[in-house]
Amino acid sequence: MKKIVIGDIVSRAWDLAVKHWPIFVLMSLITSLCSQFGATVDPNVLTGLGQNPDPQAVVEALREGMVFNYPMLIIGALLSTYLGFVVYRMLYSAITTGRPYTTLGDAFKVDLVQLAIFFCIEIVYGLAIGFGLLLFIIPGIFLAVRWIFAPLIAATEGTDFVESFRRSWQATSGNFWNLFLLGLVAIGIAILGLCACCVGVLFADVIINFMLVLAYLELKPQQPTFEDETIFKDNNNPSDFVEVQ
Predict the structure, then answer these.
(1) H or E element in which residue 187 lies
(2) Long-range interactions of 3-11: CB distance < 8 A, separation 24+
(3) Which residue among 72, 89, 93, 128 is least packed, with the fewest CB closer than 10 Å?
(4) pLDDT for residue 245
(5) Angle at which helices 176-195 and 138-146 pack, to 10 degrees?
(6) What is the mean predicted confidence (pLDDT) over 123-133?
(7) Phi, psi values for residue 156, rounded to 5°
């Protein structure tokens, strides 16, 4: 059974992030901006925040002062999903070929059917975690780990909806606790990024994304090759068997 070494994953993710940071930090920034489309805070609420010393009251005021433009929210969600799809493919390419893309134009060309599958997987994955967390938290954590690779698999391997979840389940089998600990490390990196202001958050996001792809490549189940299938078929050729009278 394949296992991941957390220290090795983090070290390699750091090296890759340092090497390719400009394009991925830019993509992370654009994705973050798209995800905020359609959500603004009432200016009157912002004016009064500086006079309120209670952090809890500030959070409550921000929550109540949020104004949503739902058509723009949908557009932002679609753009974020599209960019997430592209970034997964670029991360995968950076690791396997040493280059995030052959040409930037080619990097943004996607199969619309596969993008729709990716979008559906993202929704189902999010809902499954949400409902799981409501059911005493543990089911949500369990599903978050076992299906963590499903969106990545759909984006990079062209699999359908069910196959993406199946392969993620297969890859994470026997590695739940290692992946859970890797997730805790990712949270720690994100917190360090917050402490380093905006640029730190974006760079931390790049490291975490590389960690995810590296972990999958380490645990990726070996799929049958053409040669394997040929051998299997040859072994079942009726001419290979001797009839016993």
Answers:
(1) helix 176-195
(2) 3/174, 3/175, 3/178, 4/175, 4/178, 4/179, 4/182, 4/215, 4/218, 4/219, 6/178, 6/181, 6/182, 6/185, 9/182, 9/211, 9/214, 9/215, 9/218, 10/185, 10/189, 10/207, 10/211
(3) 72
(4) 39
(5) 100
(6) 92
(7) -105, -20
